[in-house]
Amino acid sequence: MINLARYYLAEARNGLIHEFQYRVTAAIGLLGFLVEPVVYLAVWRTIATAQGGTVGGYSANDFTAYYIVWSLVRAMNLALTPYSWEWRIRGGRLNDLLIRPVHPFHRDFAFFAGQKPVWIAIWIPFAVVLWITFRPAVDLGLGRSLVFFVTIWAAFAIRHMWLFVLGALNFWTTRTSAVFELNVALELMLSGRLVPLSLMPAWVQDVAAWLPFRWTFQYPIETMIGRLGWSQIGLGLVTQVGWIILLTLVIQLIWGRAIRRYTAVGG
Amino acid sequence: MEGNTVHVVDLRRTFKVPVREGGLRASLRSLFRRQHRQVVAVEGATFDLPAGEIVGFLGPNGAGKTTTLKMLSGLLHPDSGVVDVLGHQPFRREPAFLRRIALVAGNRTSFAWDLPALDTFLLLKALYGIPTGEFERRRDSYIELLELGEIVSKPVRNLSLGERMKVELAGSLLHAPEVLFLDEPTLGLDLTMQKRLRAFVRTYNREYGATVLLTSHYMADVVALCERVLVIHRGRIHYDGGLAGLTTRFATHKTITITGEGFPADLSPYGEVTERLPDRVSLRVPPDQIGPVAARLLADLRVDDLNIEDPPIEDVIEQVFAEAGALPP
Predict the structure, then answer these.
(1) Cα B12 to Cα B48: distance, rounded to the nearest angstrom
(2) Which residues of B touch A105 (CB under 8 A)?
(3) Helix (H, G, I), strand (E, B) or coil at B167
(4) A258: which of A6, A44, A171, A178 fits an S-S bond (Cβ 3.0–4.6 Å)?
(5) Number of Cβ pairs < 8 A linking chain A and chain B
């Protein structure tokens, strides 16, 4: 019986070492991520100010807080994309993982989890500069911070599982890039990544409530910046757990079928 | 199955392969009507491997060797047939099974590309739950046997092909697998490196009593390591037996070399002359005529020395493939 906790620690350690090895690449990669929220922040602060202070219930300060936390959540919920699955399957690289006595899911989850400390370390100076520049009025209480900690890890788990399911489609199509492109578009619109969902039409918000995207992005952000009451936070946590359970079942259901179709080409 | 580590009966696997002719028109047609072809990779393979044996698995490219290895290691699901390795059905991919086997493919690495091999060794230690003392003993032993020294401290991407293969092999054996599948492990390596890898496999086999199934296009690998070979062609096993028996069964000729003086100009009554020097002649002779021809040579000519040799194993294998290829698919 594999000691899964020990394996997770070892794989996460390798993920961390990997990021240390390419610290400049990691920094440039994160800077790329940080440009996106800075653009959103500049646009929405301008609009909020022009509209007399608020848009969709968000003030300029709220937008600042939103996009600072956004950048952390974005870094935290990075997971293996279906592009990588496609590369693995088409090139036969999956063989290396399948020959090991542990599910590939664990390898990827642990490896990406291990990279997070480096990403957070690079994010901190960025967040401090934005915080000092705009001074958003946010109550960073211990309780909210602890809940936020739980929600971003749950968000990472959900996104990792969701992308794992999309990646597994490669066993049927061998080309899921197109599906992933669609997924990115949906995620932009329905997660709160492009704009907070309260700025979206009501029907979009209704749709978003039934999909996983919101629970990987806007929900942890709102938890942190104090836009949710404790009952909403509790409901959100239950929803996140529900998605984790549902996706676990889906992965169990499809993995056995997917692996039967594997042709192990290329090595 | 009794006493066998690997038990295979009537194993089959086909692949559905998309096909179309070249050109824009064919490409457009395939948008609406895809055509596929069934390619039989393994067709009714049957064999057993007893514990501790090193068996060579020979066949030309596309013969079904790697597909068989992948089915034995659980990477591929067979279409039909019985496949049993260490009491497990590999395609179930039970961790208890995967912990007892290893698959090493030449020219590939499963190691983290950007990290030194030592980091991946530590990961494998955690993955297989190898006790620290045992891990350190094996790691140090493999480092010494394969002369890995400083190699394990460099990022894998900075290693040569031979160095990568050595760390790959060392890493694959850290958990002391009972069955080792080697798919062309010496591919692309220089002669020194090939010899070192062979010696290492032999040492590992003796020390751990591991069963080894080896595919290789280098007959030197097979001759050095295997007493028994399986020959597969077009997915079918055409020969299963000793390496020596392969020559007996498939060799179309042997070579008689005679040394002496005053040999007549025409030696064709004895066999086909393949080499002629002033004092030495080599003749190709069918195996069933070796005795009579040798006797006639000794009786008719002034022979100082006579030597009978089997053909090179590469020629024998080529003959096997040629015969197998002549059979209806």
Answers:
(1) 16
(2) none
(3) helix
(4) A171
(5) 79
- A217 neighbors A76 (Cβ within 8 angstroms): no
Do B103 and A99 lie within an 8 Å CB cutoff?
A: yes
pLDDT for A266 equals 54
Burial class of B264 by CB neighbour count within 10 A (0 to 12, 13 to 18, 19+)? exposed
pTM value > 0.90? no
Instruction: Name the phi and psi angles at B84, rounded to 5.
Output: -135, 120
How many CA within 13 A on the CB side of residue A24? Answer: 0
Strand partners, B255: B284, B309
CA distance A263 to B13: 10
Helices and strands (H and E) in chain A: how many: 13, 2
Note whether B77 contacts A: Cβ–Cβ < 8 A.
yes
| Statement: residue A175 has pLDDT above 80 | no
How many residues are listed for chain A in this entry?
267
Q: Is A141 exposed, middle or buried (0-12, 13-18, 19+ CB in 10 A)?
A: exposed
Would you tell me the crossing angle of helices A60-76 and A142-168 to the nearest 10 degrees? 50
Q: Which one-letter DSSP state was computed for residue B311? A: P
Contact state of A267 with B108 under an 8 Å Cβ cutoff: yes
Pairing status of strand B179-183 against strand B211-215: parallel
What percentage of chain B's residues is helix, strand, coil (to nearest 5)? 40, 30, 30
DSSP single-letter state for residue B155: B
Residue A263 forms contact with B (CB below 8 Å)? yes
Judge: A18–B112 Cβ closer than 8 Å, yes or no. Answer: yes
User: Strands, E, within chain B: which ranges?
Assistant: 4-19, 35-50, 54-58, 80-85, 101-105, 179-183, 211-215, 228-233, 236-242, 254-260, 272-277, 280-285, 303-309
Which residue reads 């079918």 in tokens? Answer: B236
DSSP string for B54-117: EEEEE--TTSSHHHHHHHHTTSS--SEEEEEETTB-GGG--HHHHTTEEEEETT---S-TTSBH
pLDDT tens profile A198-234: 889 999 999 999 999 999 999 999 999 988 999 999 9
* pLDDT (mean) for B252-256: 88
Q: Are B180 and B210 in contact (CB under 8 A)?
A: yes
Q: Using alpha carbons, select from B69, B75, B66 the residue that is nearest to residue B93.
A: B75
CB B64 within 8 A of CB B231: no
Q: Classify the C-alpha dihedral A114-A115-A117-A118 as positive or negative.
A: positive
A95 contact residues in B (CB cutoff 8 A): 70, 75, 103, 105
Amino acid at site B125: K
CA–CA gap between residue A208 and residue A197 (Å, rounded): 8
Tokens at B232, concatenated: 């597969």
Work out whether the CA dihedral B89, B90, B92, B96 comes out positive or negative: positive
Shortest distance between the Cα of A95 and any Cα of chain B, in A, equals 7
Cβ burial of B292 (10 Å; 0-12, 13-18, 19+) is exposed
